[in-house]
Amino acid sequence: MSNSVDFQSWVHARQTRIESTLQSVLPAAEIAPQRLHQAMRYAVLGGGKRVRPLLAFSAGELAQADTGRVAIAGAAVELVHAYSLVHDDLPCMDDDVLRRGKPTCHVEYDEAAALLVGDALQSLAFQLMAEYRLADDAATQLEMVKLLAAAAGSRGMAGGQAIDLEATGKTLSVPELEFMHIHKTGALIRAAVLLGVRCGASMNEKELAQLDHFAKCIGLAFQVVDDVLDAEASTATLGKTAGKDAQRNKPTYVSALGVAQSKSFAEELRQKALRALDGFGERGLRLRQLADFIVLREF
User: Fold this and answer.
1) Do 241 and 235 meet the contact criterion of CB atoms below 8 Å apart?
2) First to last CA, the chain
3) Which pLDDT score is estimated for 171?
């Protein structure tokens, strides 16, 4: 079996596992308040590539982590990601009507419901982090809770979104764009990798720093690719409204560098990410394959 086929089988198996985990941890649609729980399931299930859980799984394999532990940690990250998408799509934020090929949560339900969906999904993520045993010792698990909280908060994803909103209509330099996206997109991607690793055997500071650098590079590359796809791909391909960044006059890597140079920058970041895995040998195989999966998608 070729590496490519093997990787596709691995991705499918892990996507199926995370979907099953999300199905089980989300409140059933018939439990009161039914409409809120229906909307939560609508926002989370049946869509997306599950890149963040895939990163958690691949990092967990590197650390020989129990797959069940990683599935819960990956689900927690995905719930935070899903909540951020629900809120990002609201009229007061990016005001979008399409997400993952279907109407956004506030369009399908209403704005108040979407606001509560985001609140509830974030709360559920931290409930999972506290309810299940994810590490061999309590101190490590507490560090994992702190890590996810920081990644989601004002010094992470929420802060990046605030910077993004303030930057609309402005021109940002590449370093300014990097600062914004290290927070908005990169923080949760870095958390996914580090949470997956912490579900397994302990690693030294040098190894953790290497993995964090990998995740930082791949998180930025993810955003660069997103910016290119927003400029080049169709709405049908993306599953969300194409060209929205340009319509809203939002600063992107494409507006700062152009399409060709943005693609070159994404490749440069991919190479840096791969070099960060030097020394891990075959243990880093899935992370290397995911770096290719993230950067080379739809180009």
Assistant:
1) yes
2) 25
3) 87
Which residues, 6+ apart, have CB-to-CB distance to 199 below 8 Å? Answer: 56, 60, 63, 65, 66, 69, 70, 73, 134, 135
Number of domains in the chain: 1
Under a CB-based contact definition with an 8 Å cutoff, are residues 250 and 216 in contact? no
User: Closest by alpha carbon to 187, among 93, 98, 80?
Assistant: 80
Residue 35: give the domain boundaries. 3-295
DSSP H helix total and E strand total for the chain: 16, 2
> In the chain, what percentage of residues exceed pLDDT 70?
93
CATH number (domain holding residue 101)? 1.10.600.10
The b/e string for 169-186 (b: 16+ C-beta within 10 A; e otherwise) is eeebeeeebbebbbbbbb
- Tokens 């930057």 — which residue? 167
Measured in whole angstroms, the distance separating CA 289 from the mean position of its chain's CA atoms is 17
Query: What are the tens digits of pLDDT across the range 219-264?
Result: 999 999 999 998 886 666 556 666 677 677 788 999 899 999 999 9
Phi, psi of 30 (to 5 degrees): -90, -5
Question: Locate tokens 């979008």: which residue?
Answer: 96
DSSP character string of 180-222: HHHHHTHHHHHHHHHHHHHTSS---HHHHHHHHHHHHHHHHHH
